Amino acid sequence: MNPRFLVPLGAFAALVVVLAVGINHSHEVGVLKSPLVGHQIPDWELPVLTDPTKSLGSRDLKGQWYVLNYWGAWCYSCRVEHPTLLQAQREGRVQIIGVDWVADNPDENAAALEMLSRQGNPYRQVVIDRDGRTAIDLGIAQAPESLLVNPQGVIVYKEPGVITPEIWRREFLARLPPQSAVPVANAGGS
Amino acid sequence: MSDPALQARYQVLIHELRCVQCEDNSLADSDASIAADVRRQIRDMLNAGKSDREIKGYLVSRYSEFILFRPEYSWRNAWLWGLPLFLLIIGVVIAIRVIRQRVALVDNEDDADTSHT
């Protein structure tokens, strides 16, 4: 082969590699890779679903592992995820804090309470996000989305969709310390 | 929005930013409730006196650069902006060289032909 062909051939091969790497990563781009992972969770505080005079926030959960799970009674995929969360709750390795995302659904509060009582409640505590400001501040784009937060308050993982049993094992349990378990007392609310 | 200058900036921003839940719609074009919430967030920040850069910076910090339809001009994105231009220049250089070689070949043939007459 004429050696002069090697230069454009080499350049083409390099281009193929660059594009292949780009295509490989493109699903992450489409899914909005979160820039908050690896950083402190922005301070949040929301009213408790069953008692709006009380609130729960990131400050109350400092020193504990927790999963923050954004969901809604209006959200079909959240129903798909629900049994996995119930099983995770039974295993008791980490507490799951539910955030009921009202979005634009006027009956969400009642529908959420009904869904939890009918289908089971996997959440250690449930808070409600009425105006969606916290969702934006936490970079939530759709439901369900979940954040795994360590005792220092750092978001160590974000699942931008439904948690399957496989994802729970591979992404959440794998990041917990081996002995971790749900704390005995509920994090204090004011 | 009450202030026409703020209203103008608002319109530009909501057309420049992606609806976070849909891949190709702008915030202006989306019916999703999250889009309405982000639009409200932008209005609040404009009324609070934030600059366009601060508003976009906040949303990028939460949703990544993907929320911008047009990637920012930055060193990190220099390869994105520069690569097509770079490839184009290389293509033009190669084309010029190939054409010159072909012209030289044709000239040689002409000389060879004329030398046989």
Task: Characterize the structure shown.
The complex is a heterodimer of chains A (190) and B (117). With 190 residues, chain A is α/β, with parallel strands linked by helices. Chain A folds into two domains: 30 residues; 131 residues, 3-Layer(aba) Sandwich (Glutaredoxin), CATH 3.40.30.10. Chain A contains six helices and seven strands; from the N terminus they run αββαβαβαβαββα. Chain A has a five-stranded mixed sheet with strand order 5-4-3-6-7. In chain A, strands 1-2 form a two-stranded antiparallel ribbon. In chain A, strand 3, helix 3 and strand 4 form a beta-alpha-beta unit. The N and C termini of chain A lie far apart (78 Å). By secondary structure, chain B is an all-alpha fold. Chain B folds into two domains: 64 residues, Cytochrome C biogenesis protein (Helicase, Ruva Protein, domain 3, Orthogonal Bundle); 45 residues. Chain B contains four helices and no strands. In chain B, helix 1 packs antiparallel against helix 2. The longest helix of chain B is centred in the C-terminal third of the chain and has 39 residues. The model of chain B has no long low-confidence stretch (mean pLDDT 87). The chains are: A alpha/beta (190), B mainly alpha (117). At the A-B interface, helix 1 and helix 5 of A face helix 2, helix 3 and helix 4 of B.
Number of domains of chain A: 2
> Which pair of chains has the greatest number of interface residues, and how are they split between the two chains?
A-B, 23 and 19 residues
> Termini separation of chain B (Å)?
85 Å
CATH class call of the largest domain in chain B: Mainly Alpha
Structural class of chain B: mainly alpha
Mean pLDDT figure of chain B: 87
List the helices and strands and how they pair.
The complex is a heterodimer of chains A (190) and B (117).
Chain A: H1 6-30, E1 45-47, E2 55-57, H2 58-61, E3 66-71, H3 76-91, E4 95-101, H4 108-119, E5 125-129, H5 133-137, E6 145-149, E7 155-159, H6 165-172
Parallel strand pairs in A: 3-4, 4-5
Antiparallel strand pairs in A: 1-2, 3-6, 6-7
Chain B: H1 4-16, H2 33-47, H3 52-63, H4 78-116
Helix pairs in contact in B: 1-2
